[in-house]
Amino acid sequence: MAGLGFLCAAGLLLLLAVGVTAHGVIPPPEEAARMARFVLHNCDWGALATLSAQEGLRGQPFANIFSLSDGPPGPLGGSGVPYLYLTDMEISVQDLEINSNASLTVSLAQTPYCKKHKYDPQNPLCAHIIFCGSIVKVNDSEAGLAKKALFSRHPEMESWPKDHNWFFAKFNITNIWVLDYFGGLKIVTPEEYYSVKP
Protein backbone atom coordinates (compact mmCIF):
# COMPACT_ATOMS: atom_id res chain seq x y z
CA MET A 1 0.00 0.00 0.00
CA ALA A 2 2.88 2.36 0.78
CA GLY A 3 4.22 1.68 -2.71
CA LEU A 4 0.95 2.84 -4.26
CA GLY A 5 1.07 6.06 -2.22
CA PHE A 6 4.64 6.67 -3.39
CA LEU A 7 3.61 6.13 -7.03
CA CYS A 8 0.70 8.57 -6.68
CA ALA A 9 2.96 11.20 -5.11
CA ALA A 10 5.59 10.67 -7.82
CA GLY A 11 2.93 10.99 -10.50
CA LEU A 12 1.67 14.26 -9.00
CA LEU A 13 5.20 15.68 -8.93
CA LEU A 14 5.67 14.70 -12.57
CA LEU A 15 2.43 16.45 -13.55
CA LEU A 16 3.50 19.62 -11.74
CA ALA A 17 6.88 19.50 -13.44
CA VAL A 18 5.34 19.41 -16.92
CA GLY A 19 2.94 22.24 -16.18
CA VAL A 20 -0.30 20.79 -14.89
CA THR A 21 -2.53 22.96 -12.69
CA ALA A 22 -5.86 22.34 -11.04
CA HIS A 23 -7.47 23.53 -14.28
CA GLY A 24 -5.48 21.39 -16.71
CA VAL A 25 -2.22 21.38 -18.63
CA ILE A 26 -0.58 24.68 -19.49
CA PRO A 27 -0.57 25.17 -23.28
CA PRO A 28 2.78 25.28 -25.09
CA PRO A 29 4.22 28.73 -25.96
CA GLU A 30 3.37 28.34 -29.66
CA GLU A 31 -0.34 28.29 -28.79
CA ALA A 32 -0.70 31.91 -27.65
CA ALA A 33 -4.49 32.08 -28.01
CA ARG A 34 -4.96 28.97 -25.86
CA MET A 35 -2.48 30.38 -23.33
CA ALA A 36 -4.52 33.59 -23.07
CA ARG A 37 -7.71 31.60 -22.44
CA PHE A 38 -5.94 29.31 -19.98
CA VAL A 39 -4.44 32.12 -17.90
CA LEU A 40 -7.71 34.06 -17.70
CA HIS A 41 -9.64 30.96 -16.67
CA ASN A 42 -7.12 30.17 -13.93
CA CYS A 43 -7.23 33.67 -12.46
CA ASP A 44 -9.76 34.95 -9.93
CA TRP A 45 -8.71 38.59 -10.12
CA GLY A 46 -6.86 41.03 -12.32
CA ALA A 47 -5.42 44.55 -12.41
CA LEU A 48 -7.77 46.88 -14.25
CA ALA A 49 -6.22 50.12 -15.52
CA THR A 50 -8.40 53.11 -16.34
CA LEU A 51 -7.81 56.76 -17.19
CA SER A 52 -8.59 58.59 -14.00
CA ALA A 53 -11.44 61.07 -13.81
CA GLN A 54 -10.55 62.00 -10.21
CA GLU A 55 -9.53 65.51 -9.21
CA GLY A 56 -5.74 65.80 -9.20
CA LEU A 57 -5.32 62.61 -11.27
CA ARG A 58 -7.50 63.43 -14.28
CA GLY A 59 -6.19 61.71 -17.42
CA GLN A 60 -3.52 59.74 -15.54
CA PRO A 61 -3.34 55.92 -15.59
CA PHE A 62 -4.96 54.35 -12.53
CA ALA A 63 -4.77 50.61 -11.79
CA ASN A 64 -7.00 48.78 -9.34
CA ILE A 65 -7.66 45.14 -8.41
CA PHE A 66 -10.97 43.51 -9.35
CA SER A 67 -12.36 40.04 -8.82
CA LEU A 68 -13.34 38.43 -12.11
CA SER A 69 -14.42 35.18 -13.68
CA ASP A 70 -14.93 33.77 -17.16
CA GLY A 71 -16.97 30.87 -15.80
CA PRO A 72 -17.17 28.31 -13.01
CA PRO A 73 -13.90 26.63 -11.98
CA GLY A 74 -12.81 23.53 -13.83
CA PRO A 75 -11.29 22.75 -17.22
CA LEU A 76 -14.58 23.07 -19.15
CA GLY A 77 -16.09 26.10 -17.42
CA GLY A 78 -14.52 29.06 -19.22
CA SER A 79 -16.21 31.26 -21.80
CA GLY A 80 -13.19 33.53 -22.24
CA VAL A 81 -15.30 36.58 -21.32
CA PRO A 82 -13.99 38.39 -18.21
CA TYR A 83 -17.05 39.20 -16.07
CA LEU A 84 -16.99 41.68 -13.18
CA TYR A 85 -19.40 42.74 -10.42
CA LEU A 86 -19.31 46.52 -10.09
CA THR A 87 -20.86 49.48 -8.34
CA ASP A 88 -20.91 53.14 -9.34
CA MET A 89 -19.52 53.89 -5.88
CA GLU A 90 -16.14 52.38 -6.84
CA ILE A 91 -13.48 54.88 -7.91
CA SER A 92 -12.42 53.02 -11.08
CA VAL A 93 -16.05 52.62 -12.15
CA GLN A 94 -16.40 56.39 -11.88
CA ASP A 95 -13.46 56.63 -14.29
CA LEU A 96 -15.18 54.19 -16.65
CA GLU A 97 -18.34 56.31 -16.69
CA ILE A 98 -16.27 59.06 -18.33
CA ASN A 99 -14.13 56.80 -20.52
CA SER A 100 -14.99 53.09 -20.75
CA ASN A 101 -11.63 52.17 -22.29
CA ALA A 102 -9.39 50.09 -20.04
CA SER A 103 -6.75 47.41 -19.91
CA LEU A 104 -6.86 44.25 -17.81
CA THR A 105 -3.82 42.22 -16.77
CA VAL A 106 -4.02 38.68 -15.39
CA SER A 107 -1.06 36.52 -14.39
CA LEU A 108 -0.34 32.95 -13.37
CA ALA A 109 1.60 34.54 -10.50
CA GLN A 110 -1.64 34.40 -8.51
CA THR A 111 -1.76 30.62 -8.88
CA PRO A 112 0.62 28.10 -7.24
CA TYR A 113 2.22 27.36 -10.63
CA CYS A 114 4.90 30.08 -10.67
CA LYS A 115 5.91 29.56 -7.04
CA LYS A 116 6.27 25.82 -7.58
CA HIS A 117 8.60 26.49 -10.51
CA LYS A 118 10.37 29.33 -8.66
CA TYR A 119 9.37 31.83 -11.38
CA ASP A 120 9.33 35.47 -10.36
CA PRO A 121 6.06 37.17 -11.46
CA GLN A 122 8.10 39.24 -13.94
CA ASN A 123 9.66 36.12 -15.50
CA PRO A 124 8.04 35.55 -18.92
CA LEU A 125 7.60 31.86 -18.03
CA CYS A 126 5.14 33.02 -15.36
CA ALA A 127 2.65 33.84 -18.11
CA HIS A 128 0.63 37.01 -18.04
CA ILE A 129 -1.94 38.38 -20.43
CA ILE A 130 -2.84 42.00 -21.16
CA PHE A 131 -6.31 42.66 -22.57
CA CYS A 132 -7.32 46.04 -23.97
CA GLY A 133 -10.88 47.07 -24.64
CA SER A 134 -13.78 48.54 -22.71
CA ILE A 135 -16.09 47.74 -19.82
CA VAL A 136 -19.78 47.36 -20.69
CA LYS A 137 -22.81 46.43 -18.58
CA VAL A 138 -24.21 43.06 -19.56
CA ASN A 139 -27.76 42.89 -20.90
CA ASP A 140 -30.53 40.93 -19.18
CA SER A 141 -30.00 37.85 -21.35
CA GLU A 142 -26.33 37.63 -20.29
CA ALA A 143 -26.79 38.57 -16.61
CA GLY A 144 -27.52 34.97 -15.54
CA LEU A 145 -24.31 33.74 -17.16
CA ALA A 146 -22.29 36.53 -15.53
CA LYS A 147 -23.87 35.83 -12.14
CA LYS A 148 -23.10 32.11 -12.34
CA ALA A 149 -19.52 32.80 -13.46
CA LEU A 150 -18.81 35.29 -10.67
CA PHE A 151 -20.74 33.84 -7.74
CA SER A 152 -19.33 30.34 -8.34
CA ARG A 153 -15.82 31.69 -7.70
CA HIS A 154 -16.62 34.60 -5.40
CA PRO A 155 -19.55 33.48 -3.21
CA GLU A 156 -19.04 36.42 -0.84
CA MET A 157 -20.39 38.70 -3.60
CA GLU A 158 -23.94 37.51 -2.97
CA SER A 159 -23.88 39.09 0.50
CA TRP A 160 -22.44 42.47 -0.54
CA PRO A 161 -24.66 45.45 0.46
CA LYS A 162 -27.70 45.71 -1.82
CA ASP A 163 -27.83 49.50 -1.43
CA HIS A 164 -24.55 49.72 -3.41
CA ASN A 165 -26.52 48.96 -6.61
CA TRP A 166 -24.17 46.27 -7.90
CA PHE A 167 -24.35 45.35 -11.56
CA PHE A 168 -22.77 42.76 -13.83
CA ALA A 169 -20.32 43.94 -16.47
CA LYS A 170 -17.89 42.40 -18.89
CA PHE A 171 -14.58 43.34 -20.42
CA ASN A 172 -15.20 43.78 -24.15
CA ILE A 173 -11.86 42.61 -25.59
CA THR A 174 -10.40 44.41 -28.63
CA ASN A 175 -6.68 43.58 -28.30
CA ILE A 176 -4.71 40.83 -26.56
CA TRP A 177 -1.01 40.57 -25.74
CA VAL A 178 0.51 37.37 -24.39
CA LEU A 179 3.82 37.17 -22.55
CA ASP A 180 4.50 33.52 -21.78
CA TYR A 181 8.02 32.90 -23.10
CA PHE A 182 11.25 34.68 -24.00
CA GLY A 183 11.37 36.84 -27.11
CA GLY A 184 8.69 39.43 -26.46
CA LEU A 185 4.94 39.82 -26.56
CA LYS A 186 2.69 37.85 -28.89
CA ILE A 187 -0.41 39.44 -30.38
CA VAL A 188 -3.64 37.44 -30.41
CA THR A 189 -6.82 38.67 -32.09
CA PRO A 190 -10.17 38.36 -30.30
CA GLU A 191 -11.28 36.03 -33.10
CA GLU A 192 -8.33 33.69 -32.46
CA TYR A 193 -8.92 33.93 -28.71
CA TYR A 194 -12.59 32.98 -28.79
CA SER A 195 -12.10 30.21 -31.37
CA VAL A 196 -9.96 28.04 -29.05
CA LYS A 197 -10.58 26.23 -25.79
CA PRO A 198 -8.26 26.89 -22.82
Automatic annotation (TrEMBL):
Gene Ontology CC: cytoplasm; endomembrane system; extracellular space
Domain CREG-like beta-barrel residue range list: 27-195
Signal sequence bounds: 1-22
Keywords (A to Z) from UniProt: Glycoprotein, Secreted, Signal
Locations listed in the record: Secreted
Domain of life the protein comes from: Eukaryota
Pfam families membership: CREG_beta-barrel
Record family assignment: Belongs to the CREG family.
Protein name per the record: CREG1 protein
Species classification: Eukaryota, Metazoa, Chordata, Craniata, Vertebrata
